[in-house]
Design goal:
3 helices, Arc Repressor Mutant, subunit A, about 45% helix, 4-stranded antiparallel beta sheet
Length: about 90
């Protein structure tokens, strides 16, 4: 992994946490929200950051900061296929 990729990964993690903090504890975001926040262009180049954003969310799940959901229920990030949402981790 290059230094640039590592910086992008850290920016995506920060963007996820910042977006969730701004939106409040009962909301969720799409990985595309973080990808768009980090992408510096004005075209659809943010799409290339979708998979890195999903991986960043997975790292935040492992750290205990967020949950990845499908259909409103938490799912294992390694098993999630298709659209996901990210939300602040809720106590179980």
């Amino acid at each position: 992994m290059t230094d640039s990729e590592r910086r992008t990964d850290r920016r995506l993690e920060r963007a996820i946490l910042e977006l969730l903090e701004r939106r409040g504890p009962t909301t969720s975001i799409c990985p595309s929200d973080a990808a768009r926040a980090v992408y510096e262009g004005d075209d659809d180049g943010w799409r290339a950051l979708m998979e890195p954003a999903r991986r960043a969310a997975g790292r935040l799940v492992a750290a205990g900061d967020v949950e990845i959901t499908q259909g409103g229920r938490p799912v294992d990030p390694t098993e999630a296929r298709g659209p996901i949402r990210i939300r602040i981790r809720r106590p179980h």
